[in-house]
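Ticket #4471: structure export looks truncated?
Reporter: QA, pipeline team
Priority: medium

Steps to reproduce: submit the single chain below to the structure queue and open the exported record.
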Amino acid sequence: MTDRLVWERDGRDWPNRQASRFVQAVGLRWHVQVMGAGPVLLLLHGTGASTHSWRDLAPLLAKSFTVIAADLPGHGFTSTPPAHRLSLPGMAQSVAELLRVLDLRPTLVAGHSAGAAILVRMCLDGTIAPHSLISLNGALLPMQGFAGEVFAPAAKLLACLPLVPRVFASWVGDRRAVERLIRDTGSVLDPAGIGFYWRLARNPAHIAGALGMMANWNLHSLRTELPRLKTPLVLVVGGNDRTIPPADAAVVRDLVSDARIVTLPDLGHLAHEEKPELCAALIAEAVA
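Actual output as written to the record:
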């Protein structure tokens, strides 16, 4: 087990590998996938995931779009920045710089969980101006109650302990631990999907990046600014999501002037991996 994922070894069978490239931007080496032709569509995954999360959805979208997907800083095969740049504003600025280097301007953007928050931040900052933003079980509001009071301080503490990523990576050496974590999101993935999460979870650098992101995350200011969002927002909600309360979508809809909710009753937090064809149709509908 090494501290970082190695593309020549860990990426040999990576989903959509033929679309992968490595790009230098804002002092980071990014793993980026670009496929298809047409209007530019940017996909951002959530905390703890990577481009593999779009393994089935991206090729479907590439029939109509130029699809860009990147491993976020500290995740997958993208290098890790200083801790302060793992914050929401830091992530948004880094992705904006990546787009500048790629010389691409997204017409449409879609983000899963924390990826949706990054896209909202970028729209508010004016670094992107898409026609529509699709939030796939987006994490757009601060955690409430006991979880909100305990989660952030715990993440900050764990991120400061250098042995924690290695301990976690050792714990998930048993594939069943990852299977339980996925099941707890309310989603059901095939063995291949679980296998890619397992590969990521066994890597200390990836775990450190995810912990660092959670430790530096603060959604209070984003919630305050949501009424300023003018980009049409589609809130795709898995009715069985056990990670982000489905009721959060109604709160966000009431804060944003141009927002609507699409509920997928039987799907969980990873709905786009469970039913990629359905999500591709929803994204195409958003453009229409």
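Status: closed, not a bug. The export was complete when the record was re-opened. Leaving a note from the reviewer for reference: DSSP finds 13 helices and eight strands in the chain.
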